[in-house]
Design a protein that fits this description.
Order of helices and strands: HEEEEEHEEEHHEEHH
CATH class of the largest domain: Mainly Alpha
Strand content: 15-25%
Largest sheet: 5 strands, antiparallel
CATH architecture of the largest domain: Orthogonal Bundle
Distance between the termini: 38 Å
CATH topology of the largest domain: Transferase(Phosphotransferase), domain 1
Number of domains: 2
Strand order of the largest sheet: 3-4-5-7-6
């Protein structure tokens, strides 16, 4: 625990949630709404360090990952602290990256994601905030899902159902673009969030 805590302590975050500095053994691989994700170099481990205003999420997410333990679609958590989680590194492409790079997202992938989320629901959770950046397709074609902090919320979340509809009604059509520029995806996500695209959040 001491080694990870020392690495976490090396992470300096500004008041505007920007990274100031960190230990040279940490590689920043992701920036979310509430945390930075660092890969520990020469390992298959990730440390998720929460921004000061969101440190309370660390305990909530650790508890959810504990409930998901044993379901291989979700990473295992090896250690949790007041403002951080240490978990398996998930490699591959997010669905967002698949779309921007032209990697195919098949109906089988969609079905497997559905199955993974159903396993979480079977454990009393309510999978929520499912979007293109927290679902991975690994190099071997396997599905992995991260960022589960909202899996215990009570309200219904339609995001995954809307993404499935978008895949079926648009993406799966023969002549639909299979490689989509990131700015276009980001614009679609913004419009969905604002309610101007009622069925699809990309």
């Amino acid at each position: 625990m001491g080694d990870y805590l020392e690495l976490v302590s090396s992470v300096s975050i500004s008041e505007k949630n920007r990274l100031i500095s960190c230990d040279k053994s940490l590689q920043l691989i992701g920036t979310g709404r509430s945390a930075f994700a660092f890969k520990v170099k020469s390992s298959n481990t990730v440390i998720k360090v929460f921004f000061p205003a969101f440190e309370y999420i660390a305990d909530e997410e650790a508890g959810i990952y504990k409930l998901l333990h044993g379901i291989h679609y979700f990473p295992s958590v090896h250690e949790a602290g007041p403002n951080y989680l240490v978990m398996d590194y998930v490699g591959g492409d997010t669905l967002f990256q698949c779309l921007t790079n032209g990697r195919m997202i098949t109906p089988d992938h969609i079905e497997e994601i559905d199955y993974a989320l159903s396993l979480a629901a079977d454990r009393g959770l309510n999978p929520s905030d499912i979007h293109l950046r927290n679902i991975f397709i690994t190099a071997s074609g396997e599905i992995r899902i991260i960022d589960v902090a909202r899996f215990r919320q009570d309200k219904e979340c339609r995001q995954w159902n809307d993404l499935k509809k978008a895949h079926q009604q648009f993406y799966s059509r023969r002549f639909f673009l299979k490689k989509i520029p990131a700015p276009l995806l980001n614009m679609a996500a913004f419009l969905y969030k604002k309610g101007f695209m009622p069925y699809y959040r990309l």
